[in-house]
Amino acid sequence: MLSAISKNRESKKHTNARNTRPFKLILVNDLIAWIHRYYIDPIIYDTSYNPIDTATWAIILGLAILGLMRLFRRWELKMDERLIVYTLPFILAGSSLRVIEDAELVSPPWKYLLITPLIFFLVFLITATCLLLTRKILGKEFYRGYAAIGLAWTALDLAALFAVGFRNAWVIAAVLLLGSTFTVGILFLRHALPWLQFLDDRLNLMIIYAHLLDASSTYLGVDWFAYYEKHVVPTFLIDLTGTAAIMFPLKLLILLPVLSMIDRSLEDPSLCNLTKLTLITLGLAPAVRNTLRLALGV
Fold first, then answer.
1. Which of the chain's termini has less CB crowding within 10 Å, N or C?
2. Does some domain include residue 7?
3. Within this chain, do residues 74 and 154 fall inside the same structural domain, yes or no?
4. Which of 10-24, 115-129, 153-167, 245-259 has the lowest mean pLDDT?
5. In whole angstroms, what is the distance from residue 97 CA to residue 285 CA?
6. What was the pLDDT predicted at 3?
7. Interatomic CA distance for residues 48 and 108, integer angstroms
8. What's the pTM?
9. Best mean pLDDT range from 5-9, 227-231, 246-250
10. How would you write 224-265 as a 3-class SS string?
């Protein structure tokens, strides 16, 4: 009887194991399908963002800022206005590199590295490496050498794009005109509204200008060229209002209170400036990419 009971228990154990395997397999397959749907497919097919990957990349961005602060302390670097200005060429380089993928000048699997958000990590690693190397080689006066690398990189990207040919070169002037006009309007508004005094800070004004250029490129792309917006909230508001012109008030409604809060709450100058560099990048990078893409007609 003992052996019989043991056999039955052994048989039951094997049966349960067989029943458990398909269940675990289903869970794994569902997880893989979920990852593909919300993370991998939007990169491979370069489709719209969704709430899940948007939240994920936002969290990663926040963690990256904190990690970068630690690196700056280790490298004995100070994130000041000068370093921000000399980093701008790398933003231009990364944006124009993204357009190289739009123009289909790179084939899979390498093209996936040039699609958001992977390109952000790629450009970050290249920029950080150039910053560290020039700092070690050139010492404290590394700024010009650092910026020169970014400018050379941008020039190479633009040379590749010029080889493709610009079909709508007027778009570049149109985006600059629209963004500049709205920025000048904000400056006039600043003189009328004392609470906008934080716009006297040049970095804050640079952030506003970068995002108004982004709004201008989005407006032209959606309303004039029948492109579509990829991000979740702007897409909802554009569909709701029927025009991408909503991007102009949307940018200001978000940025003005955010910039005021940053200046009042972030006491660490390096953290404050790094946050502002991030905001500049989030506006200028898509503005340059959208403008070049529209100008190329791709």
1. N
2. no
3. yes
4. 10-24
5. 10
6. 33
7. 19
8. 0.81
9. 246-250
10. HHCCCCCCHHHHHHHHHHCCHHHHHHHHHHHHHHHHHHHHHH
Number of H helices and E strands in the chain, helices first, is 12, 0
| Contact partners, residue 271, CB within 8 Å, separation at least 6 | 65, 69, 79
Does residue 118 sit within a domain?
yes
| Element holding 76 (H helix, E strand) | none
Which residue do the tokens 């936002």 mark? 58
What is the spatial distance between Cα 280 and Cα 283, in angstroms, rounded to a whole number?
5
The encoded tokens of residue 145 equal: 């050498």
Residue 4: inside a domain, yes or no? no
Q: Is residue 240 part of a domain?
A: yes
Do 73 and 180 reside in the same domain of the chain? yes
Give the gyration radius of the chain's Cα atoms: 24
Residue type for position 298: V
In which domain, by residue range, is 28 found?
18-47
Same domain, 137 and 109: yes
Rounded Cα distance, 179 and 194, in Å:
23
Looking at the structure, do residues 38 and 149 belong to the same domain, yes or no?
Answer: no
Q: Tokens for 44? A: 């491979």
